[in-house]
C-alpha cells in the first residue's frame, strides 16, 4: 500500500547493458536481434561461415603475435601462428580451406612486415567499458595504440570491401570504443583506424568531442528503442494471473513472443543471416548463400 502511495517517481532509470554489436544488431534487424538475445532457447543457427573463419583466424594470429616476446615478433612467426590456429569451418572442402589458409597467411605476413615489433600496443583484445545515465556499454578492441599523449583505436578487417574514411567516421562501434578507452585510461582518444588487411589500406577518422557525443546520443536512442522492445517481450511471456484450474482442467497460457515489436528488415543481407530459415520474409527477400560464398 505504501509503495502504491509513494509511486516510483525519483527511482533511477534501469541501465540498458549492451555492446556495440548488440546495438547494431537492433538497427540491422529487430527480428534477428530477438532471436539472438531474447529467445530462449535460441533458434538453431545455420552452418558456420567461411569468411568468419578467415576473420577469426587472422585476428587470433595478430593478437598472439603481439603477445610474443619482442625478439620473437617476426614475419615468419606471424605466418606460423596463422597456420597453427587456422579455423576450417564453413569451407566447401579441404582444398578450399588450404587455399584460403595460404591467402590469409600471406596477408598477415605482409601486414606484420609493416609493423615495428618494438612499438608495444597499450592493449591487445582490450576490453573497455563506460556508462551514462541510460546505457552501460562494453566491448573488446582489437588493438589500442598509445601515440604520444593520445590513444588510437585500431580495428582489423578482412572482408572484400575496401574501406574509406567514411566507414571509420560512421562506425558507432569505433566511436564507443574511443569514448570508453578515454574514460577508462584517462587519456584523449579521438582517432579511429580500420586496417584492411587484404588491400593494406588504412581508413582513418579523427573525431572531435562533438562527433563522439553525437555517436553516444545515437547509441542511447538505439538502446531506448531496444529496451522498450525487450520490456514488451518480457511482458508478453509473463503468464497472466488466472484462477487455479480445477482438477482435470488446464489453463492455456500464450507464450508466443511479442513479434510486433521485432519486425524483420528483409534485404540482401538476409542471404547471410544465421536465422534465415526461421524467417519467411528473409527467405523471400534473398536466396540462401553457400557458407563459403563471402570469401
From TrEMBL:
Domain PD-(D/E)XK endonuclease-like: residue ranges: 19-280
InterPro entries: PDDEXK-like_dom_sf (IPR011604), PDDEXK_AddAB-type (IPR038726), Restrct_endonuc-II-like (IPR011335)
UniProt-recorded Gene Ontology molecular function terms: exonuclease activity
Segments forming a coiled coil: none
Gene3D superfamilies per UniProt: 3.90.320.10
The entry's keywords: ATP-binding, DNA damage, DNA repair, Exonuclease, Helicase, Hydrolase, Nuclease, Nucleotide-binding
Pfam family, one: PDDEXK_1
Domain of life: Bacteria
Start and end residues of each stretch annotated as Disordered: 233-260
TM stretches of this protein: none
UniProt KW Nucleotide-binding keyword: yes
Name under which the protein is recorded: RecB family exonuclease
